[in-house]
Amino acid sequence: MDLNIGIIGTGWFSKVHGDILAGMDRVRVAAVLGTSEAKAEAMAVRYPGARGYAGLTEMLDREKLDAVYICVPPMAHGEIESVLIERGIPFLVEKPIGTNMDIPTEISGKLQSKPLVHAVGYHFRYKATIQMMKERMAGQTLAMALGTWMGDMPQVSWWRRQEGSGGQFIEQTTHIVDLLRYLAGEVEEVYASYANRIVHTQFEQVGVPDVGTVTLKLRSGAIANISNTCALPGGVGEVGLKLYTGSGMLHWNPDRLDIVGTEESTSYKLGDNPYLKENEAFIHALRTGDTSGILSDYADALKTQRVTCAALESASTGKPVKIEN
């Protein structure tokens, strides 16, 4: 079965997905939608026969697409998903699924009313080391967890605006929140503190905090802390999640997993590409209808979104926020 795929967005993630799709057997990137036809055409030339578009309706009317990849900034979600659901076109949407809860809740309701094959781009779930951690945690009691996303300010103007990105915890650190949920279960309460320390003196029109720390109470009784900053210089950073149990420690970052216990200490450095696995699972679902390999669907991603948005509310009010799932 040959598949024709459309890609919405012309940024880095669009190219990552597009290049992977172009390398798959009997999969073709047929169309690219950008904020301008020039941008769309500039990316479309990477893929033989692909055409660039500046309008969603025109692209969907002219192309017979088997699925669409939505790789747009957080504030651009809503209409795209609604149109695809109405037309019955499967999609993979990059995280985060919005800047707040309004549009994601609406889209989730539409998917419940009109189900179709879809996936959300929480790609770290597909890492072999994350699957190893999930197996290790089965039957174990988590005591606590520590997560970090420490880096610099992304060099795109929309990211600096609260209404554009939702802020770092919603836009970036959502990955760590999602992994915590995936490995340790649901969050029932958060308490957050955010501040502006450095970035607002370096860039104009910065409306998002550049430091933040969030304490999370899990339904299991475990406690977690996830902290982030975008105030570091370029090229300096730290991303990871640490789990602490009665058997020892699991220290994960995107490149390595360290398992430390009284009887063993083992390090794993695996070069697997989670984007490839994510795409393979989605393409398999398109061909067969079997969605079991998709590790993040919209309903699940909505739970991660609910946690990150609750953290923003807590930071704004100075009070803990309960999470209803």
Q: Determine the fraction of residues in helical runs and give it as a percent range.
A: 25-40%
Q: Name the average pLDDT.
A: 98
Structural class: alpha/beta
Biggest beta-sheet profile: 9 strands, mixed
Please state how the strands of the largest beta sheet are arranged side by side. Answer: 14-13-12-11-7-10-9-8-15
Going by CATH, the architecture of the largest domain would be 2-Layer Sandwich
Q: Helix segment count?
A: 11
- The geometry reads as globular
The CATH superfamily of the largest domain is identified as Dihydrodipicolinate Reductase, domain 2
Strand content is 25-35%
Look up the CATH topology of the largest domain: Dihydrodipicolinate Reductase, domain 2
N- to C-terminal distance:
38 Å
Task: Walk me through what this model shows.
It is a single chain. The protein is of the alpha/beta class and 325 residues long. The protein has two domains: 3-123 and 276-296, NAD(P)-binding Rossmann-like Domain (Rossmann fold); 124-272 and 305-322, 2-Layer Sandwich (Dihydrodipicolinate Reductase, domain 2), CATH 3.30.360.10. It is 34% helix and 26% strand. The chain is built from eleven helices and 15 strands. α6 runs parallel beside α9. The radius of gyration is 20 Å and the shape is globular.
Structure described in brief:
This protein has 325 residues and is α/β, with parallel strands linked by helices. The longest helix is centred in the C-terminal third of the chain and has 20 residues, at 298-317.
